[in-house]
Design brief:
By secondary structure, the protein is α/β, with parallel strands linked by helices. It has 2 domains: 40 residues; 227 residues, 3-Layer(aba) Sandwich (Rossmann fold). It contains 11 helices and 7 strands. The N and C termini lie far apart (63 Å).
């Protein structure tokens, strides 16, 4: 019996899983070794304990450009230029580093400035030029500064950011604070009382499905006809997809891939007309 025939017979036998076990163990071991190395490196080099920051892989960054281009209805070359623009914004990097150094939370934040999928938020704002952006879930304010930097480049528009923690948003200072309104409180009553049309809405607060869905309902009366709705929770929840379908809107999802980091990444859900 030749080897090809033997392999075929073995593959169809009850002993096939046992025979393949060494190969399967090798694949798992290589994967776990890579994860263990990146985890150990991160534990000694990073101070972060939540809302991790990292760069995207080059391929993932390319996919992000295509994702934004599709949802914003813009040429992908334009989106690439905005992603490059953010990476080359040394004023924003210096601001984040200097405010972090001076903050009483500096022991839990890295001085290396990395944006991850927030670069997509920047490109959306630069492309769509919204008059009013609303973000729920401010945390330290890195995403808020990214959005504010895009608004400042546009020369038009304001950001309203909402967080239940009164200490959130410490990075929002200097020129970036000029285009940002910080609201402290539960997002649902704040959204219900905006009193101003919303061109771009970003859910990044309580990531329970019920709260996410409630935010979409609360902000809906304020959405303009051209409004883009984003969620930073689409990798674990289909609430934005369901809401989009019920409103005859389109939905896309970007699957983030961090470079050299143990965290598997999050995602951006986009709902648009």
């Amino acid at each position: 019996m030749d080897r090809t025939t033997l392999r075929r017979r073995l593959a169809g036998s009850r002993g096939a899983p046992l025979a393949a076990l060494p190969v399967r163990l090798g694949a798992v071991a290589r994967h776990n070794a890579r994860t263990l190395r990146s985890s150990a490196r991160w534990l000694v080099s990073s101070r972060e304990h939540t809302n991790y920051t990292y760069d995207l892989t080059e391929l993932n960054r390319s996919h992000l450009a295509w994702f934004v281009a599709a949802a914003a209805g813009a040429p992908v070359q334009e989106i690439r230029s905005y992603l490059d623009e953010l990476e080359q914004d040394e004023a924003l990097r210096r601001h984040v580093r200097s405010v972090t150094r001076a903050s009483d939370r500096r022991g839990l934040a890295d001085l290396t400035v990395r944006y991850g999928r927030r670069a997509g938020w920047y490109a959306f704002v630069r492309t769509l030029r919204p008059d009013h952006v609303v973000e729920t879930g401010t945390d330290k304010g890195l995403g808020s500064c990214v959005l504010a930097a895009a608004l400042l480049r546009n020369g038009v528009g304001r950001l309203t950011t909402v967080d239940i923690n009164p200490e959130a948003g410490y990075l929002i200072a200097g020129p970036y604070r000029e285009v940002v309104t910080v609201r402290v409180g539960d997002s649902l009553p704040v959204l219900s009382d905006l009193r101003q049309p919303v061109d771009l809405f970003l859910h990044d607060s309580d990531h329970s499905a019920a709260h996410e869905a409630a935010e979409f309902v609360a902000v809906e009366p304020w959405l303009t006809d051209r409004a883009l709705v984003l969620t930073d929770n689409a990798e674990v929840s289909d609430e934005l997809a369901k809401w989009s379908e019920s409103r005859s809107r389109r939905f896309l999802f970007f699957d983030e891939r961090p470079a050299d980091h143990w965290y598997p990444g999050g995602g951006i859900g986009a709902s648009y007309r």
